[in-house]
Write a structure and sequence with these properties.
Layout (H helix, E strand, L loop, with lengths): L2 E3 L7 E2 L5 E8 L5 E8 L3 E2 L6 E7 L5 E5 L2 E5 L4 E5 L4 E6 L3 E9 L3 E6 L7 E5 L4 E3 L2 E3 L4 E3 L9 E6 L10 E3 L27 E5 L1
Parallel strand pairs: 17-19
Antiparallel strand pairs: 1-16, 2-3, 3-4, 4-11, 5-10, 6-9, 6-11, 7-8, 7-10, 9-18, 12-17, 13-16, 13-19, 14-15
Length: 207
């Protein structure tokens, strides 16, 4: 069964530090995996979330400077940020307010990650990054479609069970428009640069 979860229909939840808002799009019954879209409004420190792994993708055309444990990286649209909820993360600067796709997972059970192979998921979804018409439905940026294949091949974002994952935890920054990778953080084995610009819309997987 296909479901369309519209970004515009979800209520804004104000952050505790007042630096932005979040609109929840999907979560599993346990709350261990969550998908949302956050609006970045001004520089602010990220709230600590012990036990959670996080992955952010810039959806809107903005440029941000983010600091992870003292290291500063600049990201543009399509840039990906991966970090743990115990790390010290702060948004230092942004050239305009804008939205990010936000995946969160309980790190003892799940790992949010980027992949080009969607074969492992039973339930798939994708997030529109621009206004499009799909199967007669108009979708706006930030809308989530669950239970249907996306309109074209694209990068996937997935939740992988930790027990079946052969990869160690990876934290850092991928820059979609530059062949530069950030530095791996605590508990990280390595961080591979992604030289290609990420395709849009982004696809997410929920198994």
């Amino acid at each position: 069964m296909t479901r369309i979860i519209r970004y515009g229909d979800q209520p804004d939840l104000r952050w505790a530090n007042d630096g932005g808002t979040t609109r929840a799009l999907w979560s599993d019954p346990s709350g261990e995996r969550r998908v949302s879209v956050a609006m970045l409004e001004r520089p602010a420190a990220f709230s600590p979330l012990p036990g959670m792994a996080r992955l952010l993708v810039l959806l809107d055309p903005l440029t941000v400077e983010i600091q992870i444990d003292g290291r500063i990286s600049k990201l543009k649209r399509g840039g990906v940020l991966s970090f743990l909820g115990t790390q010290r993360v702060a948004l230092l600067a942004l050239d305009r307010p804008g939205r990010v796709l936000n995946l969160m997972a309980h790190m003892e059970s799940w790992e949010p990650y980027l992949s080009l192979d969607p074969a492992s998921a039973e339930l798939t979804g994708w997030v529109a990054s621009d206004a499009i018409v799909w199967n007669g439905n108009r979708l706006d940026r930030g809308d989530l479609v669950i239970g249907a294949a996306p309109p074209s091949a694209m990068w996937t974002i997935a939740f992988r069970p930790v027990a079946s994952s052969s990869a160690s935890w990876r934290t850092g920054v991928w820059l979609s428009r530059e062949d530069i990778a950030g530095t791996a953080g605590p508990r990280a084995a390595r961080l591979d640069p992604i030289s290609e610009e990420l395709s849009f819309p982004l696809r997410a997987e929920f198994s």
